[in-house]
Amino acid sequence: MKLEGKVALLFGGTSGIGEATAKAFAQEGAKVMISGRDDQDGKRIVNEIKQKKGTAMFVQADVTKSEEIDKAVEKTLSEYGTVDVLYNGAGIHDSYANALETTETEYEKLMAVNVKGPFLATKAVLDHFLKKGKGTIINVGSQATFVAGPGGSAYVTSKHALDGFTKQLAYDFGQKGIKANLIAPGFVETPMTEGINEERLDDIPAKRAGKPEEVAALAVFLASDESDYIQGTSVKIDGGWTVGR
Ligand code: NAD
How far apart are CA 170 and CA 229, in angstroms? Predict the structure, then answer.
């Protein structure tokens, strides 16, 4: 039970990697507040966790809306009394559109979800973390945090930006007990990568896509006290995909 006694708030927790992470956090003893836009998926996941004797609730929130994020944080505090771990997993892809193909509206929408969302959610929990003198932030980057190609112009920009945000959080608040790290998954079998082509898998030394549960296990470690000396870093979990790039 690596997360016994901890409370985790997960944005983007209603599918794919976020769903697997919510379940893994609960399995390790955390009380989880799952946030997402989809009420039905949220309730389904809460039920699945409860069936396994875990503790979970759902709160609907769009990460582009600060008032909805604030409500999710308020609900976590009022229901569970505290929050220890913030997981920023919501993200959208841009179908590999280059700068010419990307419209201003598409760019702004992607940045609002992938970059501004984690910023708003972090702002919403920071005061509480600082009062406690402890708190963990996990941002979900990508192999697109390191290299061009796993997305288009906006996606790659957004995932590089999230790395900078993570580092700056560690720099500004590390001495106050805040631990901020980024997980950088490679190709993982989720709704986002449906239709993933075999050519891409060929470039991965592991010769397969990752599983959401494998990424979730890394999140458990970063959320736990075992990783308290890991600070401001990006941890790749990509089957080696980036080493050959
Ligand atoms: P996914 O599509 O299942 O998960 C993305 C989640 O973000 C969904 O639950 C979606 O509802 C949520 N979301 C999107 N817009 C939102 C908004 N405005 N407000 C709240 N939630 C919103 O796909 P996934 O693969 O599990 O992606 C999870 C994270 O992992 C994303 O940040 C993604 O960029 C990252 N990632 C995924 C892969 C991969 O191969 N699957 C690789 C690298 C990084």
Answer: 11
Is the CB–ligand 1 distance for residue 196 below 6 Å? no
Does the CB atom of residue 15 touch ligand 1 within 6 A? yes
Give me the catalytic one of 80, 87, 107, 155. Answer: 155
Residue in this structure with the two tokens 């690596």, named with its chain if needed: 2
What's the Rg (C-alpha) of the chain? Answer: 17
User: For 149-199, what is each residue's pLDDT tens digit?
Assistant: 999 999 999 999 999 999 999 999 999 999 999 999 999 999 888 876 667
Are the beta carbons of 37 and 90 closer than 8 angstroms? no
Q: Ligand 1 centre from 89 Cα, in Å?
A: 6
The predicted model scores a pTM of 0.98
For residues 138-156, b (16+ Cβ closer than 10 Å) or e, as one string? bbbbbbbbbeeebbbbbbb
- pLDDT above 90 (res 201): no
Q: Does the annotation count 80 as an active-site position?
A: no
Helix axes 117-132, 153-173, angle to 10 degrees: 10
**Domains plus CATH for the chain?**
7-244 (3.40.50.720)
Three-state secondary structure along 61-89?
CCCCCHHHHHHHHHHHHHHHCCCCEEEEC
**Which among 39, 58, 92, 203 is the best mutation to test ligand 1's pocket, defined by most ligand atoms within 8 Å of the CB?**
92
Q: Evaluate: CB of 14 within 6 angstroms of ligand 1.
A: yes
Closest among 184, 181, 157 to 169, alpha carbons compared: 181
